[in-house]
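Render GDP-D-glucose phosphorylase 1 in 3D.
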Amino acid sequence: MNQTIHNLLTEQLASWETARNNYAALSGVQVKELNVNGTLYKVQFNPARIVSSGAKVDAKSIKERKCFLCPANLPAVQKGIPFEGHYNILVNPFPIFPRHLTVPETAHVAQRIAPRFGDMLDLARQLTDYTIFYNGPKCGASAPDHAHFQAGNKGFMPIEQDWCRQVAGKVADYGQATLWWLNDAPRTTLVIESADRKTAIKLFDTVYHSLDIQPGEDEPMMNVLVMYEDNKWIVFVFPRAKHRPACYTAEGDANLLSSPASVDLGGVFITPVEKDFIKITAEDIAQILGEVCLSPADFQKVRKRIQEQL
């Protein structure tokens, strides 16, 4: 499958000018590194991502626009690879990663993780060169009305290498799987390590049902990353408390266009506006994460609930 994806990328960059220009622009993207309470974060200045970071995701705006993930509305030049009969693997024309994919459902159904976490594991098992990610409808998804995953080449997000050194403790053992929690505050991170698909799904389901669902919402707020290596799945779950930090809508100098999603929580903060890239500090990132992630007390409660359910 990795080779098939490589061929798709090569073909799309040859035939699709928008994608070609945006991937070429990645080589000039500026990056800086910040140390946030001992955790490394990269900050990327990527103007093409304003499409996603600035996306209007209120119900009215979504209702008034055509869904850009529905097959009927894709650009004529965009080609895909079918996956499991009801997904389409596409090249993302507004990349963060050197190889960036979007994997939407072929049907227009809402962005929900519970019924398709197993599909996410299967995708990671097939796309072993990639980390698969899920943004909840109020957690960075710019298409909360259409179910989709994304994928980016492995080794891009600091958490992929760092997490083992940041383990704070074990939440639970369950069959062939272990659930860890990380010492990476103010981010709140749970990690499932499992060699068995069914066990990974059971553990994720337990985590899911240990999180609060906010009034008017259909699922707990979260971002999820999945990768498959050394014959096992590594699943990062970031429980959330809030969609966007206060700085997103702040006026004047306090304004910083940050709408954190999986990649930001994985350690690469995306800034589509140059002034934000220049001014953002480790303290800003800590403040943003402290707002959008669970409080230490709530995170502790979640871990206790998980232990009680298993």
